[in-house]
Amino acid sequence: NFMAGTIIITGANSSLAIPAIGHLLTKYPDYTAVLAVRNASGSDNNTKRLRSTIAKHPGSKTSIHELDLADLSAVHKFADDVIDKIRRGSLPPLVGLLCNAFYWNLCRETELTRDGYEKSLQVIHIAHAAIILRLLGHFHSDGGRVVLFSSDAHWPGKNGLEKHPPTIPDELDLLAKPGPDPTPDNLGRGFQRYARAKLAIVAWMYALNRYLNEEPRLRNITAVAINPGTLSDSRALRTNCPPMLVFMSRFVFQPLRPLLRFIDPTMRTSAEAGVDVVDLAVRAVHPQDRGYFTMLKHDDSAPESMELRTQQSLWKKTLEWARITQENTVLVKAFT
Length: 336
Prior knowledge:
Largest sheet: 8 strands, mixed
Mean pLDDT: 91
Strand order of the largest sheet: 3-2-1-4-5-6-9-10
Number of strands: 10
Low-confidence stretches: none
Order of helices and strands: EHEHEHEHEHHEEHHEHEEH
Distance between the termini: 35 Å
Strand content: 5-15%
């Protein structure tokens, strides 16, 4: 019963996003999809697959935009462009933000972006926070939904790849600029950086919901963080990964998925997860709800993400990292 409008999807050529977009264009054709990818050129095979999916829906209201989340200047320019199009009427008001893009590096040492931040944290957390806070004032009057992506990795001890538990350091600048790894361990430290970024976005989500609820014009915008499950066919398991993990993905996780579900009930395909995240984004399910989900079930997030002090300190530091000021967001109470 909600009004259709614009949905922005980052990482739109990912394993999860392509079937999600297919579901969106099939079941919710009245929506306008703004699809952000790192490489929009014809040479990118993943973007080719995205264009092929869109081509199956002639007349769909979609556009593909190149966006490098590892460049905050590009992120703010993207937000400026979306705002301008909504103001001019060439895009309908926003009703959803699907913050799907991610980055990990499990085979090299710490990488910094051109902004000087650890790359996993910037792509997963800082850049998405910037987009959200820049665009909150351009949602439909009926509100909308912000979907953030988490993982069981954010909870210490829950993921088999974990060697070093994810925690939020008291000195938050160490999260964004961690310095050299203490010991050579690309897989373990790389996964920890990814897990910390997922922990950060979940903790930040709780603060975002509090601030949204305090603003009468924004309280119909709800934020959720979802663990979409263990996606056995995800390209992530073959990107920036050691050969062992690539082998496991191809010859263990995918062919043995029906059996592995008995061990991990959240194991499923990217297409299955894509349906859930789109239904969440258009508020076809849990329309008024906020908080953390494992697949489509309300769930607890990691204890550290629930600590008010952690949430608030991350909130304030994220404003700084993301270059958010009282002049470029309508969420004025964010600075009190």
